[in-house]
Write a structure and sequence with these properties.
six-stranded mixed sheet, Purple Acid Phosphatase, chain A, domain 2, five-stranded mixed sheet, 232 residues, alpha/beta, globular
Length: 232
C-alpha cells in the first residue's frame, strides 16, 4: 500500500572520487521505497553540481537517472526542489517524470500543510548562485565543453563548502526562520542544506533538517500525517 512520503537532501553526487558506498546505499533506499512510497521529495543538492545542457546529459549519472526513472514508472511521484549546487535543472528531468521546483513551496500532504525548501536561499549568500542563477554565467556555461564546465563548477563548489562551515550558527538561524513560518497555518517545515539531521517540535509543529547522504544517510518519513527522521 502506497501510504508513505519520503524526504531526502544533500546527496552531493559527484563530490567524491569514489562514491560506490554512497551510490549503493542510495539505490538500496530507492529499492526499499519503490513499493511503499506515494512520493519522494528530493530537497536540493542531490548532485554536487548539475547543469542541464540542451542536448547532453552527464554520462556518469546515467544509472542514477535510470533509478529515478524506475521510481516514476512504478507510480512514485518524484519532486525535486533545487538547491544551491543543482539549481539549473530543466526539461530532461520532466521527461522522466520528475516535477522540478525552483523555489520554496507549501504543499498539502496527508492533511498537513508542509513548507519545503532547500534552505540556502533563506540564510546566506553562496558563490554557487553566481554560477547557477546568473543569466550571464548560464549563457557562458552553454559555450563551454561540459568537462571544462564541471571542473570550474567543482572549484566553485569547494569554495561554497568553505563558506558553509559555521553550521551550528546557520541551523539555529533556520530554526528561528522556521519558527516564524510555523506561527501561521503551516504544520511543518522541511529543509536541507546544513547537513545536520534535526527534528524539533515548535508548539506541536514539526521542524526538520534532513541532514545528508555524505555522512549521516538520513531521511524523513511522513505516514498518516506524522513526520519522523530516520537513518539508512
Amino acid at each position: 500500500m502506497r501510504d508513505t512520503i519520503y524526504f531526502i537532501s544533500d546527496q552531493h553526487l559527484g563530490r567524491e572520487k569514489n562514491e560506490d558506498e554512497k551510490i549503493e546505499k542510495l539505490f538500496s533506499f530507492f529499492d526499499y521505497i519503490a513499493s511503499t512510497a506515494s512520493a519522494l521529495y528530493i530537497v536540493g543538492d542531490f548532485f554536487d553540481f548539475y547543469f542541464e545542457y540542451r542536448t547532453q546529459i552527464p554520462k556518469k549519472y546515467y544509472e542514477v537517472f535510470r533509478q529515478l526513472s524506475c521510481l516514476t514508472e512504478k507510480h512514485v511521484q518524484v519532486h525535486y526542489f533545487t538547491g544551491n549546487h543543482d539549481f539549473w535543472l530543466g526539461r530532461f528531468f520532466e521527461s522522466i517524470g520528475i516535477s522540478v521546483h525552483k523555489s520554496s513551496e507549501d504543499v498539502l500532504l496527508q492533511g498537513k500543510r508542509v513548507y519545503i525548501a532547500h534552505g540556502s536561499e533563506m540564510i546566506s549568500f553562496d558563490p554557487m548562485n553566481l554560477v547557477l542563477r546568473n543569466r550571464v554565467a548560464i549563457a557562458l556555461f552553454y559555450l563551454l565543453h561540459p568537462d571544462l564546465a564541471c571542473k570550474i563548477a567543482s572549484f566553485v563548489s569547494r569554495i561554497s563548502r568553505m563558506n558553509s562551515k559555521k553550521k551550528t550558527i546557520r541551523w539555529r538561524k533556520l530554526y528561528d526562520i522556521a519558527g516564524e513560518i510555523l506561527h501561521g497555518d503551516i504544520d511543518a517545515v522541511i529543509l536541507g542544506h546544513i547537513h545536520i539531521p534535526i527534528h524539533r517540535k515548535l508548539d506541536g509543529k514539526d521542524f526538520i533538517l534532513l541532514g545528508d547522504w555524505v555522512k549521516h544517510f538520513s531521511y524523513a518519513v511522513m505516514r498518516k500525517g506524522k513526520l519522523s527522521l530516520y537513518y539508512w
